[in-house]
Amino acid sequence: MQLTKLEIKGFKSFGDKITIHFNEGVTAIVGPNGCGKSNVVDAIRWVLGEQSTRMLRSEKMENIIFNGTKNRKAANLAEVSLSFDNTKNILPTEFSQVTITRKLYRNGESEYRLNDVKCRLKDITDLFLDTGVGADSYSIIELKMIDEIINNKDNSRRNLFEEASGISKYKVRKKQTLGKLKDTESDLERVDDLLFEIEKNLKALENQAKKTERYYRLKEQYKSLSIALASHRITHFSESLAKIEEQELAQRTEQARINTEIAKLEAQLQQLKQDSLAKEKNLATQQKATNEYVGKIRAYESDKKVKNEQLRNLQDKETRLSNELSQDKQQLNHALYNIKRLNEEHLVEQTKLNGITVSLQQQKAEVDELRGQQQTAKNKLDASTRQHTELQNEIYKLEKEIAVLRIQHDALEQESVRNITDAESKASELDQFNALVDQLEGQTEALQREYEAAVQSENELQQQITDTETAIQSIKDELVRDNRQLDAKQNEYNLTKSLVDNLEGFPESIRFLRKNAGWKKPYPLFSDILFCQEGYRIAIENYLEPYMNHYVVQRQDEAVHAIRLLSDAARGRANFFVLEAVSDVPATGVLPAADSLLIPALDIISVEEQYLPLCRRLLHNVFLLQSDDEKALESSLPTENTVILHKSGKFSKNSVGMAGGSVGLFEGKRIGRAKNLENLAKEIKSLSNQIANRQQKLGDDTQRLEGLKRSTQKIRIEELGLQLNRLNNELVSVKTKQEQYQAFIANSQNRKQDIEQKMANISHELKAAEPRLATLQTDKERQHALLQEMQGAFQELSEVLTEKSSAYNQENIRFHQQQNRVSSIDKDLEYRESLRETYETRIAKNTAEYEQVQAGIKDTLQHVDHSDEDLIAMYAQKEAFEKGLQDVEEDYYASRGKINETEEHITRLRRQKEQVDFLFNELRDKKTNLKLDLNALKERLLVEFSIDIAELMSGDEASERDAQLPEPEEDEETLRFKTEKLRKQLDEFGSINPMAMEAYQEMNERYTFIVKEKQDLLDAKNSLLETIQEIDDTAREKFMEAFTKVRENFINVFRSLFNEEDTCDLILSNPESPLESDIDIMARPKGKRPLSINQLSGGEKTLTSTALLFSLYLLKPAPFCIFDEVDAPLDDTNIDKFNNIIRKFSNQSQFIIVSHNKRTIASTDIIYGVTMVEQGVSRVVAVDMREVA
């Protein structure tokens, strides 16, 4: 990984955007004190995520934004970008170019970007974790950090070792795990508290449950309750149920809407992901093409170098080939001798093999014949076995079918009896439903007509309310617009009046005369008497700029008096126009030829009559261009005394020259200030009257709206709607049951016929199946006897075959052994033959190659290529490839950002869906509870009352209740006495908990659940403790391994910076706990015995800290390192040691050095000079020392 580019804009003293490019080697940043060198280091530290304002040398974060200078305004944004080359994939990302950006706005908002994609600070920190790069890593070293390392301030040594050893991520994991452990322990405490409370209440709740059970046994005898209370409660239940059902329907609608939107977004997300995948593939293809082209360039460069080495290689090859030819000829003679010997051995062994082959073929024929007999017997045995198995399966299947038929026949008989009984019962109940349906339909039609009339009236009223509200809102919008316009005009009036009254922008002499009592008459300024059309104000003001501050007086003595006042008070100079001395001039001359777009300046101004001669004299022969054509600037100069002005004031021309340039923001604001004040006052008064009229109309419409809202019939409509819904629901319920009963009776008749037909079919099948079963069982016994005979014959044949096969296998083994011997000789012969052919081929090849090499030497001496034009073209093509790759990467990351936004939207919708589901479940629970209460009340009324309450319940429930209630056997007085007696007993029973049984069961289940949860939390705690121990063990092992290597490196580097006789060491203050132990530095230069490292000189401390830093680099080289004036305490000798060791390590890492030392600057590759050409604004100038050298 390599640092490639730093871009700074609006950060500290860098008011303008600057770019610093970093190459391999050592880069120096130089400049005088206070020019902004260290601000470059602060910018790198800040973009890497530094949050401490102290480390950025600032009191608060806002101060790092460019604060402006005397001639520049302050910036609103500080922005720093840092780019890395990640071709070696050191950073955990697939991108070869990584750019991180940090922005801070003056309002306090900030943002981070990774490859121009918005991200979090945590993403930046995780990206550079354990890479040696970061705001607090050892990659940025300042002079004050040398003392911090020596003094171990804020445990800085330990932080450096942890970053280098790579245990920072383990510390983060341990911290996260400890947080989870703390949460788990907190959950355990809450669970223990819950268990304590539940155990305390569980016993009391058990007693309440037993008491409740006794109470309900006594209450079963209670037979009387107020009918009014019962009627009221039933009505209340019906209304609540209707309201809940409406809310439930609304929630269902919302669920469907959210599900539809989620499905739509998920489809869009899938499409986006497919597009992103295609873009990702395109990105990979582009990267591959770029890398291949870079490889092609490198191959081309290598080829040029190869040509310079080719001649020497050919000469070496000539010598080598000569030696190889001599050796190959000797080896060829040896191979020919071995071939002759092996041919003789092959003849003997082949004769033996032929004899064994004849014997083996005879035995194989006998075995094959026996195997054919065995296979025939086995086929007959298998066929017989299959027939026997098929008979068994068929018998089993038939027995199963007979059993099933008998079970079906019995079930059909029972169903036929039950069907007849149910049909007779339902027919009697159907007559009652028919009468109830007719009654409910009449009530529903009457209520529906009343409801429709009320709704129509309410709709008309709501339309009037809507129209009125629309009119009110329109008036409010107009009032807001008028008030804003009035405020703008009032502010403009106040500002203009302040400028006129205070003479803002005028010299002190002008303000003095205006306020001086000795000059009593309020003489006007020339800028006040002149009024101009808006489009030409800037042009006229620029032309008349020299005269804008002139006072206009009537007589010369008035001007003389004013001049004397200024002279006596020493308040500067002033200019005066004396009207009596101004003579009128002729009218404006004829327009210049061919200039129809010109307009006289006098035509676009307006002044009072007394000032008109003065204006004519000043604007005589002055013309303005009516168009904005920029080509007019290039036209020829006017003739004679004509002056031409551009409409917007960009330039002016006269007969001898021209002037022009940019137009200021506040130009054209001085002409006619006094006149503008009058116009603004009129507009303010007009707007105030208009606002008052609108407010009056708003009050009238608001009163009318309140009257309309008071006359609404919504409550009546809701009551009628509830009644209508209740009747409709009741009618639908009754009709549904009526239809169900009719369908049941019809189905019963059809079912009766089906049952009779099925029973007849089953009886017929049973008569046919039983004789067939007996026949199959007889066939099975006969087949079993035949099967046993065939198995015996097959066994005898198998034994004979086994004996013959054994003898054949022995002979076959002998055959293969002899065959292997012959084959071995054949292979040896083939090998020797191949050697012979190889040697012959090599001799021929080397002979030909030897001749080619001699020819190549001659040819190579004649060809040398010094052309670089192809290489330059290839580099240009490489830049095109890289630019295309960057465009594809930007498109890909934009696509990924859109995918993330869609996923966040889906997540919000799913949360909304969960909330809707939660509300829906609550409504369903409420509805269930109401139904439970209603059913309990109905059951109690059926037991307790002998009064007809059919109007409060459905018809079928009323009929069933009347049938179940017994006739009273005692008179009314006796029943009242017994009822009163039971009521008193219930009152004396005391308060009970009606939900005690259910609550006890629920609490008991909850107690069991929480006990299980506690065990799960204990298991989780143990798992977290084991994880922490595992993290500590891994971190301890890595730290000790890194500490040992750094200690060895420190001794070597220290002695290279000092002398070989000097001693040094790194010591753990607590070796038993290395992860928490401090790290002590022991350094003793030759001839010194300091008691502590703090007694070393400043230069020795710097070299010691440098030795420690480079020891860490040897363990884990950081991609780059920045030294901010670290070499300040060193003398010339130590400076050279410091520079030498930096040069030594520059092959592995980039070094960026901020320094004033000439020796250090001279040893670097590239120098960036930081200067302040403009006070308070830093600039950067680059010098490549390699090109200078």
Contiguous uncertain segments of 5+ residues: 223-229, 954-969
CA-atom Rg in angstroms: 54 Å
Biggest sheet overview: 6 strands, antiparallel
**Which secondary-structure class do the elements indicate?**
alpha/beta
Spatial order of the strands forming the largest sheet: 2-1-4-5-6-7
Name the shape in a single word.
extended
What is the arithmetic mean of pLDDT? 77
Helicity range: 55-70%
> Distance N terminus to C terminus?
28 Å
What is the helix tally?
21
- Tally the beta strands: 23
Beta-strand residue percentage: 5-15%
How is the secondary structure organized here?
Elements (H helix, E strand, L loop, with lengths): L1 E8 L8 E4 L4 E5 L6 H11 L29 E9 L11 E9 L4 E5 L2 E3 L1 H7 L12 E3 H9 L4 H10 L2 H52 L7 H276 L5 H8 L10 H4 L1 E2 L4 H7 L7 E3 L2 H14 L6 E3 L19 E3 L4 E2 L5 H7 L3 E4 L17 E3 L5 E3 L4 E3 L12 H38 L3 H147 L8 H76 L10 H10 L7 H17 L7 H62 L5 E6 L10 E6 L13 H18 L4 E5 L7 H14 L4 E5 L3 H5 L3 E9 L2 E8 H4 L1
Helix pairs in contact: 3-18, 4-17, 4-18, 5-17, 6-12, 6-13, 6-14, 17-18
Could you explain the architecture of this structure?
With 1189 residues, the chain is of the alpha/beta class. The protein is 67% helix and 9% strand. The strands form six sheets. A six-stranded antiparallel β-sheet has the order 2-1-4-5-6-7. Strands 8-20-21-3-22-23 form a six-stranded mixed β-sheet. A hairpin with a 2-residue loop joins strand 6 (110-114) and strand 7 (117-119). The longest helix is centred in the N-terminal third of the chain and has 276 residues, at 227-502.
